What does this fold into?
Amino acid sequence: MAAAIHTAKTTLPLWLAGLLSAALLAGCGSGSGQSTTPNVKPDDGEDTSRPGVVYNGPAPLTEDIQNFKLYVWDNLALDDRCGSCHVVGGNDPMFVRTDDINQAYQAAVPLVDLHTPVLSRMVSKVAGGHNCWLDSDTACADIVTGYITEWAAAAGSISNEIVLTAPEIKEVGGSKNFPPDNSDYAATVYPVVNQYCSACHAESAPLMQQPFIGSSDVQVSYEAARSRMRLDAPANSRLVERLAQESHNCWSSSCANDAQTMADAIAAFADLVPVTQVDPELVTSKALQLADGSVASANGRADNYIIARYEFKTGSGAIAYDTSGVNPAADLSLYGDVDWMSSWGLRFNDGKAQASTQTSRKLFDQISSTGEYSIEAWVIPSNVSQEDARIVSYSGSTEVRNFALDQNLYNYTHYHRSSSTNSNGMPAIVTADADERAQASLQHVVVTFDPVNGRRIYVNGEFTGDADPSAIGNLNEWDSSFALVLGNEVSSNRTWSGAVRFLAVHNRALSAQSIHDNFEAGVGETYYLLFSISELIDVADAYIVFQAQQFDDYSYLFSEPFFTRLSDDPIPTVPVKGIRIGVNGREAIVGQVFAALDTEINAADYANGQQPLSRQGAVLALEQGSDLDTFFLTFDQLGEHRFARVEAEPPAPQPPADIADQPSLGIKSFASINASLAAMTGISHSNAAVHATYEKVEQQLPTTSALDTFVAAQQMGITQLSVAYCNALVNDTAKRAAFFPGFDFSQVPGAAFSASGRNHIIDPLLNALVAAEVNGSSLATQANPSSTRAELNKLIDTMTVCSGDCNAERTATTVKATCAAALGSAIMLVH
It folds into this structure.
């Protein structure tokens, strides 16, 4: 649902808020427009589901008070939350008192904002560290926001309004920026990271892991380390925190000493970096940081049935919190090589995040009660070459599970245990090979199951159309002893490489519209940055507003600028030309798509509290981090103020690099070999026998295209895989009849391999292997078909010389051998 945007005096139109591209701060509203009932137990006067919380006072006087009890009081009255203080005999306000729910309600009302729950006083107190029951104030605040949002939704009070508030006025000042030259870094920080981090964080490391801060190339190391160093506060750099707080690969017996060594090196580098002063000739707005913006907290997601939610806001530590508010919280413990993303998320390199079997039990309980579910994730696969890689799984081992979402090359796979599938969730539903749905980019992936439609897969808000290969069963076969795990299998041998930026488990199958709404809502947090231009145009509380968010670990997204004012001053006609975004005292080098803007602010085009200036967006590099980078706008012209910009002459092109000639021929990699054999034979790479062989020989197959890296052991692996494909082809009577039309497999070799019989075998193999013509012309570098035919005839001659066992089985064996020799040859391998 689109949201209205409110200023102090006016409202922006619905279409603007509908373009929000990040998940909401609250992240748990029910603004999907669906008429639903959340998963709560009816109140019978005593809440036996929460030991220690007993209410025997007067009944709620109104439905709203009852909703307050169900959604807020029942959750916060626990002794380890608010029940130890905000009760009779404790501290005011007594909003969880146990003697009278009606008086508790009266105490709670001033503490909440039912129109915008995230702005509630109750939320801000917890976010500030007041009696948070977890190790993360952010997680506690998100949970409390969810409780208030559920109350507001039940009361019909939830608002889709975004309130624009005037920011504190900050002048544009100088700042330290990372220099383009790496010489100072090479003399200070690089010796430390190269010596102590290169065993893992380098391209040549046996266990190669990003970021490559230990690279032998100083520039590669510098680029990887920049976003992990703070020039203003070296001790707060991520490189230091990893050692000091997380004991990550300390190189001595004291992580504290190692952290100090790293901090000293970064401080030495920072001392060499000069302060960048703002050009006084520029026409500039006032300055802002990301946190100075108005949070885009409107509710556009369908979150009514979430039973586990992970937004990964904590940013550090060994636990990723379940902020769904549905008890027990299935918090995830991090194991192995897992990194926090500054843009909210977990990056899995060679690790996993796993909940306990006890807390995971709620998935079994909640989903068993409805008989349906959805898994929703925002993911970024690192590559499209990984197979059998677990993104999220609710399982007991590699052989038994309740559900799983996997990546297999370009495909997403959904395993689902039911009465019509086996204990491992097979047969799985897989996206079509030709669609190549899985990509190494940010994607919204949702899998659903319900008793009417069975399983469905949605990617980026779109139903893939892939059919469920099994009959629709029930969930009676589910096991309650499994654990929820991300990035791997519980047995740690199905590693997935990539990032998860959001995960939710719903105990309903989301509708296509709800999935589209959640995709449109996006992921992360969006702010409205109000850049003050009042002094430049003589209008009180006048702003150029940008939607802004941290896009990933390395960049920001600025989009859809508009003009607004929070006062009643009249709007003059103001020319606006050449808007550029400045970061840390200087104009950003790239991403200046608004530099060509040539328009004007005027009263005629100002409506509903705003005047759109552009529909475009720009990606800017993250420099010092979202909590430090300071932004401002510059103008070639704004009203009477002008900046005489002199465009620099483009540098002369460098002479072309003199590199050695590269070979025009190469060999296929392991994945390409597997795909080629599948395409030529028509046998799916998921065929059980083929897949088992591939798993055995995968590490033996070529990994690079260089011809001089090919060894005999690789050919043996190719041969074994070719035999597996040809064996599957010949053993399938329907497929072999279609592939080798006219050949009689029931005859003995002497009769079967007549001159015409041989053609029925060799011709289809050559057609699959050798391109006769392309656009009417033969390929100049392909194998000679006649030579290939002669070699295959020699093999058939050898295979059919027999005594005593020349039966029809020998005929099939000869066809398999001929097929494997042809399809596993260099003709297939070299390209």
